[in-house]
Amino acid sequence: MLGIVAAGIAPGLALLSYFYLRDQYDSEPLSMVFKTFIFGAILVFPIMFIQYVIQTEVGSQSVISQAFWNAGFLEEFFKWFIIYYTVYKHVVFDEPYDGIVYGASVSLGFATVENIFYLFSNGLEFALGRALLPVSSHALFGVIMGYYLGKGKFSEKSKAKWIALALLIPLVLHGLYDYILFTMKDWLALMVPFMIFLWWLGLVKVKKARILSTRHFENSLFKSSFISEK
User: Fold this and answer.
1) Is the distance from CB of 103 to CB of 143 less than 8 angstroms?
2) What is the pLDDT of residue 56?
3) 73 Cβ neighbours under 8 A, 6+ residues apart
4) Taking Cα atoms as reference points, which of 179, 37, 48, 39 lies closest to residue 118?
5) CA of 167: how far to CAs of 38, 63, 103, 148, 207, in Å?
6) Residue 88: pLDDT above 70?
7) Shortest CA distance to 143 belongs to which of 92, 210, 94, 193?
8) H or E stretch covering 20
9) What per-residue confidence (pLDDT) applies to 220?
10) 89 in helix, strand or coil?
11) What is the mean pLDDT of residues 200-210?
12) What value does the mean pLDDT of the chain take?
């Protein structure tokens, strides 16, 4: 039992540590990162309940509906909702890169609990595959979501557009991920390039967020020095 719990938690904590340590300016308070991680973990239960109700009441659904609605929309919407209403307007969200940290934190909280449940049901031999695919993909959906939320918060215009993209793009990517799993007999042949693309896109967003944070702090220093000179 302890081995399954450890194997379920380890990938999420490792990925979260990686994205957390990439923050080159004011590191986020660990208490807030832990809080959003727990919020993400708790999300598993209402989402599982809603998915169960949909499957019970609606019955048979198309693969597209299962991939993009039951999985993509429900999971990404609730993660987006948590980040927007608990962190986005909080004082600790003070640079664009913070969106990456909190996006990854909420997503990995969700992925970690989901991973533990899966390993208890199916066995420890699936731990590596789960770490490489579902846990990693959730982390990257969160990174991409966080990038657009960070961009939206610190942009002087088009805020609504960036906030909407923070939900829309992870939703589409998540739906595509599940669509590949649900429909392809040789799903691994397509999943490998999809995951390579997802990692590339996520790391591009990390790099861009770091650049945005650098500009943000340079502008803040310039304004502070200008005010002090006056």
Assistant:
1) yes
2) 85
3) 171, 175
4) 48
5) 20, 21, 11, 9, 20
6) yes
7) 210
8) helix 2-21
9) 65
10) coil
11) 96
12) 90
